[in-house]
Design brief:
- The chain has 223 residues and is an alpha/beta fold.
- Helices cover 54% and strands 11% of the residues.
- Strands 2-3-4-1-5 form a 5-stranded parallel β-sheet, with helices on both faces. Strands 6-7 form a two-stranded parallel ribbon.
- Helix 3 (42-56) runs parallel beside helix 5 (81-97) and helix 7 (131-141) packs across helix 8 (152-158).
- It has helices at 12-23, 32-35, 42-56, 67-70, 81-97, 114-117, 131-141, 152-158, 164-177, 191-222, and strands at residues 2-5, 27-30, 60-63, 102-106, 122-125, 148-149, 189-190.
- It is built from 10 helices and 7 strands.
- The protein is elongated, with a radius of gyration of 21 Å.
Amino acid sequence: ILNFYGPPGTGKTRAALGVALRLGKPLYQVDYAAIISKYLGDTAKHVKLAFAQARENDAVLFFDEADSLLSKRVATGESCSTSINQNRNTLMQELDRFDGVVIVTTNLFENYDPALLRRIQRHIKFRLPDEAMRRELFALHLPNHSRIEADFAVLAGLSRGLSGGDILNICVNAIHAGSADDDPAKWKVTQEMMEREIRKVRRAKKEHEGESGRARRRIGFCS
């Protein structure tokens, strides 16, 4: 069992695919929405089925955002404790029986159940790219340099704190903006376009962080 953890957009899912490709196995990604059920006992059945299908296909089993399924068990006495704890116990038992490779990913490492932590062989932290990496990412995602009128070194400095996923979105959106002319010969990506897209991503992330903070405060108030 491998645990990939770190901020969103740092390549955890891509790395899971890379591990499967290196092993010559398919990647079986567990769909959290399909597994969870409001009916008592159904979630545990779905968990068992996921492991059975991964075993049948000799696949690498992949739980993305695994803290949703593998978070700490609920104290006895709460209305949902029996169902949630049953699901956690089923998952732990299936992990013990499974003899293949399991990869779990999370942005919230501290939410894992301690029983899961004891079963994980490797914890691999994914960090945000440094300036040199960001420069390489811009060059990677904007490969047609004859159409690019932008300084990758400057962009790397302006994108400090952004993830690889953020940089990909910036590049794709700038390419779309630079391809609007009816004459393809005039298609190009400029420094101004890139900087505008960087500002958009920063603004969106700031708004998202604000909404997440308000949601956490509401949850704390309700509990």
